[in-house]
Amino acid sequence: MDSTIKHIGVFTSGGDSPGMNAALYAITKTAEVNGINVSGFRKGYEGLIDGDLVQLKSHELQKLTQKGGTILKTARSKRFLELEGRKKALQTLNANKIDALIAIGGDGTFKGLLAFSEICDIPFVGIPGTIDNDISGTDYTLGFDSAVNTAIENIDKIRDTAESHNRVFIVEVMGRDSGYIGIHSGLMVGADAILIPESDTDFINLLDKVKNYDSEDAFLIVVSEGDEIGAEFVSSKIKEVNPNVDLRITKLGHIQRGGNPSALDRMLGIRLGVEAVKSLLQSKKNVMVGVLNNQLHLTPFNEVVKQHQVNKELHELLELFGT
Amino acid sequence: MDSTIKHIGVFTSGGDSPGMNAALYAITKTAEVNGINVSGFRKGYEGLIDGDLVQLKSHELQKLTQKGGTILKTARSKRFLELEGRKKALQTLNANKIDALIAIGGDGTFKGLLAFSEICDIPFVGIPGTIDNDISGTDYTLGFDSAVNTAIENIDKIRDTAESHNRVFIVEVMGRDSGYIGIHSGLMVGADAILIPESDTDFINLLDKVKNYDSEDAFLIVVSEGDEIGAEFVSSKIKEVNPNVDLRITKLGHIQRGGNPSALDRMLGIRLGVEAVKSLLQSKKNVMVGVLNNQLHLTPFNEVVKQHQVNKELHELLELFGT
Amino acid sequence: MDSTIKHIGVFTSGGDSPGMNAALYAITKTAEVNGINVSGFRKGYEGLIDGDLVQLKSHELQKLTQKGGTILKTARSKRFLELEGRKKALQTLNANKIDALIAIGGDGTFKGLLAFSEICDIPFVGIPGTIDNDISGTDYTLGFDSAVNTAIENIDKIRDTAESHNRVFIVEVMGRDSGYIGIHSGLMVGADAILIPESDTDFINLLDKVKNYDSEDAFLIVVSEGDEIGAEFVSSKIKEVNPNVDLRITKLGHIQRGGNPSALDRMLGIRLGVEAVKSLLQSKKNVMVGVLNNQLHLTPFNEVVKQHQVNKELHELLELFGT
Amino acid sequence: MDSTIKHIGVFTSGGDSPGMNAALYAITKTAEVNGINVSGFRKGYEGLIDGDLVQLKSHELQKLTQKGGTILKTARSKRFLELEGRKKALQTLNANKIDALIAIGGDGTFKGLLAFSEICDIPFVGIPGTIDNDISGTDYTLGFDSAVNTAIENIDKIRDTAESHNRVFIVEVMGRDSGYIGIHSGLMVGADAILIPESDTDFINLLDKVKNYDSEDAFLIVVSEGDEIGAEFVSSKIKEVNPNVDLRITKLGHIQRGGNPSALDRMLGIRLGVEAVKSLLQSKKNVMVGVLNNQLHLTPFNEVVKQHQVNKELHELLELFGT
User: Fold this and answer.
1) Which of A264, B319, C293, C304 has the CA that lies 20 to 30 A from D226?
2) The pLDDT of residue D229
3) Total domains, chain A
4) Nearest chain D alpha carbon to A62
5) A32 → chain D, closest CA residue
6) C132 and C35 share one domain
7) A186 and A98, same structural domain?
8) Quick check: C160 and D250 CB within 8 A?
9) For residue B320, is it within any domain?
């Protein structure tokens, strides 16, 4: 155990995602049990630069495992991209005698820590938080499971009205670069077609199905947002071959980013939060904690990459169910 | 009691709304207890014209009070606007020995029944079903309460992410001609601004608030869809005065039309369904059943109008909370 | 307008119920607009006696319309039943220059205010908050609609497993003295039998139905808690006539008291909160604000009584659907 | 590919769990794509014995991925424990030319298949379905994630009322022999104490905490049902040391078994359903398909055991957060 750590700093950065508050609870509780104080920096790297911090107490955080978003707030920081910003952040850490730093965010957040490590030698640990589930070194990122649960609960509602009218519905879900939410939610709601950026969409097949769809049932299409696909694009393609189709579009949008975290995301937040503090106590540094093959796993920051996780099994499912 | 009624026909017409299946259950159960058969016509007036009907059994419908949409499906019918279509519908009724007809739908549905009554003299009763709650003669229409519950559950999710980023969010809810969903959902989520078609929006005041919003908190705007307002219009107005604002738009869309009916809508469906059959048994005809001032109430079809229900009290609430 | 009011005190008392926080928001916002400060006393009358108060700000409460329970906490106070306790409460009000008092609670809360009015002459206004909906002078009390929504969402889940096993299920809902939750939730889920304290249960009929239930379907009984009925009692009755019945009991319990308030309860909280402040500004005193026949309505405290609201229409529905 | 399979039989057995219908959809869709018919036997082994079967069509099942329970119904079968029952089941399979059999259920279900394999040599494949997650060879069983999501959503509600009254609450969750639901839900809601059968509860520590709990906050205990623990037992222990404690009990009960399946359970159902058919096509027999370390995995029936899955990591979390 690394007995030199007395004061851990923590912050959330990049997009918020459900489960971040559960991670903050677990970090603080684990730290307290080990006699360590925890301070939370507000608004990501901005709080490090500006010295905007609050003391965290597990007794208060305990009630917030259920709360979506992040109580520390989050932001993207242009200033931290500059050396000057990082130097100010270093001053903040020194002034507050912070011995170690835990960051919850995406791959950009961890890249920031790597850059910071050039001038700051306290240990850093990262926790992957993004609804897109597109980070290597972990099966799940904080927020993905909540986002998919929100998506399917709402697509289930859309099915009610789609079936009542025998309509074609295009539902657009999040994931500009990653179809992970798209393929999962599409499979889970029994969609008639699923379109994601990782796959060459077989439009001919899709249009053929929609063209011949007998108007005696709903036809439900789940599509990821994106430049090459997206709801409007699919809609225009369909209307080319079937101009009279009774078609509606719903874009789920930011509802997928909020809401009470799902069971999986709360547990993931707790597991990763505990492991982050334990890793620091074991003198680890510049690593991301993750759950890989259902086991806790550490990945050095410089090996963490943005990674599409639509694997062979998912591609086969897409082929089987997707059009 | 009108002992001549042996066979009631029922159908859902216009837009679907949660609670319609509860009404079908109550109609069928009440009819059965009175020795009356019930047949359901599919796809609104289309089913009347085409003779597309199924026998309804309360034992099966009992399990479907929780289900959104309408198991009879619904549609808008151009053919029924023509005399020829209505004549075919009359043939269907005669062929199936239908003694009375109950329609669940909006004001357009009831207008159709009025036109039909010129050639068909069996009694008609209507049940108001539309999420817009814009029909005179009833405090609530089937589906409004469910739609608002869906809206606020999702706006609550948006608040999580809005507060995490201190962002301005514009959430667009349904109600092209009626701000009833907009004002209700806006008040219920503690919105910073609420914009509905019934009110001259004080853009100067709103823009002033957004201009000076201190970026230390979220700013949540709920706006009804529409030509004069709508999310994009409000967004463009804001960006004129505050081009750098961190603003996001979410349009809730058709999720507001589906989903399991809320408590109020299930109860309303049951009350109105029972009352519809009772009214027929009491030889009423060409009336809409409603709940006015919490009491069951009948309104002749020719007095039912599309009506904005944003009353004086709501206007005062809008003034107090809306900007 | 009563310009003498500068500082309103507010507290929640008795059982908590969803919607209380929305009322606190509306009270505070309306007061602020009228230049009035609002202080919240914690833990009901206990806070008045002990001088335990916090200043309320609408900007903070705005985010809490969605939160169940009461942020002011609530309690039953034995000390306030004694004159000495009420004298201490008076001292608190004087010391803090409280000009008017708003209490959110049940009939017991309002009786307390009546007693208090003998020694304290500032104006009191009450807001009815209880999930049991058993207070005269209002169609709805804060929390009832949320409780019923929670009940039916969970009974819907039970239906899934009941139908999978063709089991008899007895679900016990809250309402020791009042079957209002019982009859509503029973009707809304399509129960096979509904048993409430207000009605002589026709056990012979019920037992006959269960005895002959063909084990090809679920049989769902919704029963209010209580001495004369309750789940165990009904279970023992059934087992007398059908010892081999595959029967399960679930008591929903306190989940019915919590959770995010429903749309109706949030709106009710806002309407009643605004009206409470307005009433004070119009020099009203010792009245409860309610919504009667969908209109705002004032009832003098001494006319507010605990009242069963299972009316003639509900009794008829019970007879039709309840066994 | 095993081209000899033309007709697969499928059934659900033991306790129902959310996700079973998604599995039925995936089985049927995968079979259809491979030119195979699927028949569903109703009520588990009872349907095999009685020849009670229906043809399954993916087009219909597609809409039911969202539905809890099992549309095939389920049961425990005493008759199948006897050789005579199994002989009748064999006759049914022969009469209907069933080439392969897929069973969704728990370890008892798979034991039944092993016994059946002595007289029936068509291939069997099993899919693990039980909310208790206590089967070896898979990280997750169908239904566990849904059950935990239902548990935490409702415990969150209880927190609202517990905090409003500063009460001690004991919430009992399912898992008579397995504390897997208990430890997960307890951690996820930030419980003050978690008691499960796998762990010697440190009652001295717990009682010390409750004894000194300062009545300025809620105290939330999550406990698994069971003989040695359970809500009443814990309650009596607490009242011994603190007779005046303001304590309430809620037993979540069968609501944990029903409800729309969570995202994870729908996906698990789809993955396992597809893999079950693929395994048959690859001439596998007498194996259970599971997801182990996030990969599809086959376990021979005779190696499948009922297994507590509270591993070292969970025990450490329990020690850290549980009392």
Assistant:
1) A264
2) 81
3) 2
4) D190
5) D320
6) yes
7) no
8) no
9) no
Same domain, A67 and A206: no
Q: Are residues C54 and C111 in the same domain?
A: yes
The Cβ of residue D275 has, within 10 Å, a number of other Cβ atoms equal to 24
Residues C259-299: pLDDT tens digits? 999 999 999 999 999 999 999 999 999 999 999 999 999 99
Range of the structural domain that residue D121 is part of: 7-142+261-303
- Buried b or exposed e, range C259-277, using 16+ CB within 10 angstroms: bbbbbbbbbbbbbbbbbbb
In this structure, is residue A274 part of a structural domain?
A: yes
Burial class (CB in 10 A: 0-12, 13-18, 19+), B310: buried
pLDDT tens, residue by residue, C113-159: 999 999 999 999 999 999 999 999 999 999 999 999 999 999 999 99
Q: Which of A62, A189, A293 sits opposite D66 (nearest CB)?
A: A189
Sign of CA dihedral D257, D259, D263, D267: positive
Q: How far is A143 from chain B (nearest CA, A)?
A: 12
Contact A152 D25 (CB under 8 A): no
CB pairs under 8 A between A and B: 112
Q: Are C161 and D262 in contact (CB under 8 A)?
A: no
- Name which of B254, B256, B262 to mutate to probe chain A: the one with the most chain A Cβ atoms within 10 A of its Cβ: B254
Q: What is the pLDDT of residue B2?
A: 57
For residue A1, give how far its alpha carbon lies from the nearest alpha carbon of chain B (Å): 34
- Distance, CA of A9 to CA of A53 (rounded, Å): 9
Burial A56-87 (b: 16+ CB within 10 A, else e): bebeebbbbbbbbbbbbbbbbbeebeeeebbe
Q: Are residues B128 and B268 in the same domain?
A: yes
- In this structure, are B36 and B128 located in the same domain? yes
Exactly one of B99, B107, B132, B134 is catalytic; which is it? Answer: B132
Do the Cβ atoms of B54 and B8 come closer than 8 Å? no
Residues of chain D positioned with their CB less than 8 A from the CB of A266: 152, 187-188
Residue D317 belongs to a domain: no
Beta strands in D23-90 (DSSP E): 37-41, 53-55
**D323 found inside a domain:** no
Identify the pLDDT of residue D274: 98
| CB within 8 Å: A270 and D66 | no
Residue B155 is given by DSSP the state: H
pLDDT, tens digit (0-9, with 9 covering 90-100), for D140-193: 999 999 999 999 999 999 999 999 999 999 999 999 888 999 999 999 999 999
Q: What is the CATH number of the domain that holds D151?
A: 3.40.50.460
Q: Suggest the residue from B42, B160, B169, B252 to mutate for an interface test with chain A (most A CBs closer than 10 A).
A: B160
DSSP H helices, chain A, are 20-33, 45-50, 58-61, 83-95, 107-116, 144-165, 180-188, 203-212, 231-241, 263-281, 312-321
Tokens of residue C304, six digits: 């507010």
- CA C286 to chain D, closest CA, distance in angstroms equals 26
CATH number at residue D48: 3.40.50.450
**pLDDT exceeds cutoff 80 at B297:** yes
The tokens of A286 are what? 């510049």
Please report which helix (H) or strand (E) contains residue B195, including its range.
Answer: strand B193-195
Mean pLDDT score across all residues of chain C: 94
Report how far residue B108's alpha carbon sits from residue C80's, in angstroms, rounded to the nearest whole number: 59
**What region, left, alpha or beta, does residue A129 occupy, with left being phi > 0 and alpha being psi -120 to 50 degrees?**
beta
| Structure confidence at residue A243 as a pLDDT band (50, 70, 90) | confident
The tokens describing B294, both together, are 């919490």
State pLDDT tens for residues B225-255: 987 789 999 999 999 888 888 999 999 999 9
CA-angle at A51, arms to A48 and A57, nearest 5°: 90
Q: Give the distance from residue A229's alpha carbon to the nearest chain D alpha carbon, in angstroms.
A: 24
**Under a CB-based contact definition with an 8 Å cutoff, are residues C138 and C292 in contact?**
yes
Residues A57 and A204 in one domain: no
Q: What CA–CA distance (Å, rounded) separates B285 from B124? A: 5
